[in-house]
Amino acid sequence: MVDIEQHLWGMTPEGEAIVLYTLRNAQGAEVKLSNYGATVVAVSVPDRDGRMADVVLGYERPEDYFSDSPACGKTVGRVANRIADGRMTVEGECFALERNDRGNHLHGGSKGFANRVWESRVETNRVVMDLLSEEGDQGYPGSLSVEAIFDFDDDCSLEITYLARTDRTTPVNLTSHVYFNLAGEASGSVLDHELRLRSSRVPEMTERQLPTGRFLDVAGTPQDFREFRPLRSGIDAEFNHIRDFRGYDHPFAVDGWRPGILGEVGCLRDPKSGRQVEILSSQPSVMLYTGNWLAGSGGQAKSGGRYDDYAGVAVECQNFPDAVNRPEFPSPLLRPGELYCQKIVFRFGIC
Q: Which of 203, 218, 255, 326 is exposed most, by the fewest CB atoms within 10 A?
């Protein structure tokens, strides 16, 4: 049985309460959550010698989460990732969205779900957060009711379930923007972490970090993570604009994906500490981001100071970028009467 504590962590400038939840299992491992952005603030798990460390990036003060550009640990939406030129057509109607990333719309806009206070509560041994996104919110059609459910168990598995309903057809693509450093969040670069992904194809990307619609075979390329490989080994490659993006900031297609089925995505491990995190998802794609622009972009770290580039790696389970404009990708559209239901599992352990 997981113990859950909650306390008032701070207030927004508008006077809304920011609550911090601590979920603690029988091993003494902990997950900390905030209702600002439905955020994973901390995850403390043991290494191969039983020593605990916080393995996700985050900030010391709640106010450092206000509109932080890395979206550190947050739930991003209404649509995670990029929509080309901030434009989309839904059921024949054109919509213009905020352009907040080099002419593109990114992560639902500057006032997206990551920068909102969610209603939150404890339900027995889980934390549930709710958000209502009104018609026209950030330019999106339809009123969208969203729920984020966080479960943590004695096996050190953090399960995140996203649910949503709408009264008008609208795109939805929710993900958790957690940055991992399995050596401990104050341990510097993650480029010696090793990654395995269940992916044999990747979208071809443009210099504006948008998919062309073509898929590339990863075999023999720096994006081939079908076997464990250090992140460092391909970080400066020219293939598919890796060097242009200053590292990995790329979507991968999940092999064997089936709609509504929770499946294996991959595993991230740190050889030095022995910690690893297995990743499962019901989404068709996973975005790998090696923290290429972290330096100077966030608040004070939990350990003090500021994070440098490559201080954490995000493995974001989601739909493909610009899927609303790309019929070759699984549709992100949610219609009235349908239930959006996607799961992400981070299963922490020892390698």
A: 255
Which residue reads 């939840």 in tokens?
A: 21
First and final C-alpha spacing in the chain: 25
Q: Exposed e or buried b for every residue in 239-268, given b needs 16+ CB within 10 A?
A: bbbbeebebbbbbbbbeebeeeeeebbbbb
Active-site amino acid positions: 177, 316
> Closest Cα partner for 205 from 178, 233, 244, 234?
244
Nearest 10 degrees: CA dihedral of 74, 209, 229, 69? -30
**One-character DSSP codes across 112-162:** SGGGSBPEEEEETTEEEEEEEE-TTGGG-SS-EEEEEEEEE-TT-EEEEEE
pLDDT value at residue 18:
98
279/266 Cα distance (integer angstroms)? 5
Please tell me the distance from the alpha carbon of residue 202 to that of residue 255, in angstroms, as a whole number. Answer: 10
Structure confidence at residue 246 (pLDDT): 97
Q: What parts of the chain have a pLDDT lower than 70?
A: none
